[in-house]
Amino acid sequence: MKEVDKTTLPIVQMAKDNDEFRQVLWTGDNTQLVLMAIPEGGEIGGEVHEGHDQLLYFVEGSGEAKIGDTTVAVQPGDVSIVPSGAFHNFRNTGSAMLKLYTTYCPPEHAPGTEHETKKQADADE
């Protein structure tokens, strides 16, 4: 999917419909909007973003968020806040895809980035 040029999107439905590990929807000067889908038993992978805050909005499935030293369950309707410099990882602990959308401030990925799987994303980074 090419980056969108609309200013209003049905983001929750778009996230529910997405089956790709990562899909960058929109990139501005200061913010980026990305869809993600984590398969059963999968994870985003532990990482730290220096200079980037991240918000993750969960819309389907269940999982576990580890941010710094804190680990909590996540479900639809939850938002996880990851400040710049904090170690974080998100795992799918449910029996279906964990679907979410996330914002990076400032942008983290190249505009238009698409990764069908985590393996593909890891190879690209």
From TrEMBL:
It holds the Pfam family Cupin_2. CDD domains: cupin_Bh2720-like. Residues 35-103 form the Cupin type-2 domain. Residues 106-125 are annotated as: Disordered. Gene3D superfamilies: Jelly Rolls (2.60.120.10). Residues 111-125 have a biased composition (Basic and acidic residues). It comes from the Bacteria. This is Cupin domain-containing protein. It comes from Vreelandella andesensis.
